[in-house]
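// run 5 | inverse folding | seed 20
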């Protein structure tokens, strides 16, 4: 019987080994790719839950958390935030991740950090602001009384009581300032535009212009994380390009995410 071309080729030792080598290589590539897909879980991801406001134990109980590795890496103390709960996480909520991904958590400490109150009486508003912020404190309400020097600090209060230098209070507490205003000078201020800014940035700019603020959050702000991402979408009074407002005027800020 006359052999076909394929049959004659197959009887060739070199050709047969070449075919074996090619098939073996393709099989090896297939197995390697299959193993890599298993190890890397290619295209098998899920969104990270929002653990904000949960205790560590509550976070661990979340269904998706069982596919993650939750680790506490730090703690901070934030006023008006439930103690012992998640303050920040990385990756952020809704980030697509794979099984066994590490999620790093920052917890709001159960005990507030204490700071020593500095003396800012006699300082200018700008100087007092810098000193208080450096100590981990914040400026609260500004009020004005007649004085020879405008924006000179006459008194400092905490929770409606005069607070003295050396007192120990919680970090982040607000210090209200009584400031002087030279009535004869007739000094007034402008209201800057803060639309589009975060609450902290808007407050900072208003304080620099000797103004108070009132924060009004939209109903869409459900939690602390929402408040951090919120931006001013309206202000009242509106921005003013000329000096027509009394020092200490309160500006209402309307915010939403």
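// decoded
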């Amino acid at each position: 019987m006359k052999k076909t071309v394929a049959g004659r080729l197959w009887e060739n030792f070199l050709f047969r080994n070449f075919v074996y080598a090619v098939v073996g290589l393709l099989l090896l590539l297939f197995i390697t790719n299959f193993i890599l897909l298993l190890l890397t879980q290619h295209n098998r991801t899920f969104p990270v839950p929002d653990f904000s406001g949960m205790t560590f134990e509550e976070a661990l109980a979340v269904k998706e958390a069982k596919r993650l590795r939750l680790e506490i890496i730090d703690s901070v103390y934030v006023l008006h935030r439930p103690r012992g709960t998640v303050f920040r996480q990385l990756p952020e909520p809704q980030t697509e991740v794979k099984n066994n991904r590490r999620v790093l958590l920052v917890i709001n400490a159960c005990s507030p950090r204490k700071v020593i109150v500095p003396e800012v009486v006699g300082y200018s508003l700008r100087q007092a602001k810098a000193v208080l912020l450096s100590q981990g404190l914040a400026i609260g309400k500004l009020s004005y009384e007649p004085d020879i020097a405008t924006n000179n600090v006459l008194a400092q209060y905490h929770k409606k009581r005069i607070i003295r230098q050396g007192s120990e209070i919680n970090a982040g507490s607000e210090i209200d300032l009584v400031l002087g205003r030279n009535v004869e000078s007739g000094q007034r201020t402008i209201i800057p535009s803060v639309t589009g800014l975060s609450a902290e940035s808007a407050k900072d700019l208003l304080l620099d212009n000797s103004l108070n603020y009132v924060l009004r959050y939209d109903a869409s702000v459900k939690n602390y994380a929402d408040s951090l991402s919120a931006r001013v979408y309206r202000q009242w009074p509106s921005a003013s390009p000329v000096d027509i407002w009394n020092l200490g005027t309160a500006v209402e800020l309307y915010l939403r995410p």
